[in-house]
Design a protein that fits this description.
mainly beta; 4 domains; 3 helices; about 10% helix
Length: about 425
């Protein structure tokens, strides 16, 4: 037969629809042109169920084939049912849905208690006896094995050195228990997973935003069973109120490049396309209304004398161009700084010495007032009070105009947040 999407075939028969943990759904068109007879058979010593569709047609048949999920993708297909490393010596057949007996027992999952696991095994094996997948004797053996196991028991204690941390810091994870084979510590805000047999140190990613970041400790016990502990952790601003920082020491997932050519290279965030004005990248998930945005700028290539690099703040929607929303505050190599408001144009311009090499650039927002600072000069290069200011929190973006620019040391503070002392 010819297998494809919306193809035609004649005399189609014997289509396998269950293979390698996936199923295939077949649909056909042409009323009265085809008949379908499903059937199944145990294969691979009873550990798998083969689903067969007998599909016959009098003439050409238009059909559509789709892959759909198996009831138990990635089945435990060992010949016997195991609980941890322990072989129960009970056969592990399929139940006709793509799942094996071991899949249904779920011994590798986290349970609220040992009793809950044993109750689940009792109910599940009873149901499988009714379906004639298990004998009563094998069901009883599985219940007894579950009762002897340590699944659902709290045998390991895990703890963090603190429940609050600043992004970029290291934390100590402590484990205690006599049944630990190894433990893996993971979390959405960590630089990577750490595997240990006792104490360990983990590092919070520098670019993590304030908020909850639960840490998971998955322990494999000497019996081969697992225990899962979730440790609460809250990321908080540092003593200066910094809610986001990125030193670009490694490729960062904290940014989304909207356009242009952005990459982390050599410890900087580089935009190297000089063909247009307004190439931008946005900090994911971060908004501020009042606060500061600070970065280092280094102009590498200029396409025009009016080229610039800067930051866009109070951006209504992530990725908006500077003509659509927010304020764009930008520095030119000649030392001038402009504050541009979407829909209004340039509100103010400040002048100063030309810049060479990396230079610090900081934008402050306080209600209707915006100020921009260049280098270590304590006086603002430009200040403006907008009579009809853009209000409310908005996204933070880096923007270039006809220039290849290296950005580094991005720091964002948000006014009014609780800080760590």
């Amino acid at each position: 037969m010819v297998v494809g999407s919306r193809s035609e075939a004649v005399g189609v028969s014997g289509v396998v629809v269950n293979r390698d943990g996936r199923s295939v759904e077949i649909r056909w068109s042409g009323a009265g042109s085809a008949a379908l007879w499903p059937s199944s058979a145990q294969v691979a010593g009873g550990s798998r169920t083969l689903q067969v569709l007998d599909l016959k047609a009098a003439g050409p048949l238009a059909y559509d084939i789709r892959v759909v999920d198996d009831a138990c993708v990635g089945s435990d297909e060992r010949a016997h049912v195991f609980i941890g490393d322990r072989d129960t010596h009970v056969a592990n057949p399929g139940d006709g849905t793509g799942c094996t007996v071991a899949d249904r027992l779920r011994a590798g999952e986290q349970w609220d208690s040992h009793r809950a696991f044993v109750t689940h095994v009792t109910k599940t094996t009873t149901a499988l006896v009714r379906k004639r997948v298990l004998t009563r004797r094998d069901a009883a053996r599985l219940v007894a094995a579950a009762a002897r196991s340590d699944v659902g028991k709290n045998l390991v204690t895990a703890s963090l050195s603190t429940t609050e941390a600043v992004a970029g810091t290291r934390l100590d994870v402590r484990l205690s228990g006599r049944t630990i084979r190894e433990a893996t510590v993971s979390g959405p805000c960590l630089t990577g997973d750490v595997t240990t047999t006792g104490a360990a140190q983990v590092t919070v990613r520098e670019t993590t935003l304030p908020g909850s970041c639960p840490i998971t400790v998955r322990t494999v016990r000497t019996s081969g069973t697992t225990e899962l502990d979730t440790l609460p952790l809250t990321i908080v601003p540092d003593a200066q109120g910094v809610v986001f920082r990125d030193g670009f020491s490694a490729p960062s997932q904290a940014w989304t490049a909207v356009d242009g050519s952005w990459s982390v290279t050599g410890g900087v965030y580089r935009q190297q396309d000089t063909t247009r004005t307004g190439w931008r990248t946005v900090v994911n998930g971060l908004t501020i209304e009042d606060g500061t945005v600070e970065t280092s700028l280094d102009f590498r290539t200029l396409a025009t004398s009016t080229a610039f690099g800067g930051v866009q703040v109070r951006t209504a929607a992530p990725g908006d161009s500077y003509t659509q929303s927010g304020y764009l505050v930008y520095l030119r190599p000649n030392g001038s700084v402009d504050i541009y408001k979407a829909g209004a144009g340039v509100l103010a311009t400040g002048t100063g010495p030309a810049v060479t090499g990396p230079v610090k650039f900081r934008v402050e927002l306080r209600g209707a007032e915006l100020r921009a600072f260049v280098g270590d000069d304590p006086a603002p290069r430009v200040t403006v009070t907008d009579p009809s200011p853009i209000t409310g929190p908005g996204s933070v973006q880096l923007v270039t105009g006809r220039a290849a620019v290296d950005f580094d040391g991005v720091r964002v503070t948000r006014q009014g947040v609780r800080v760590t002392r």
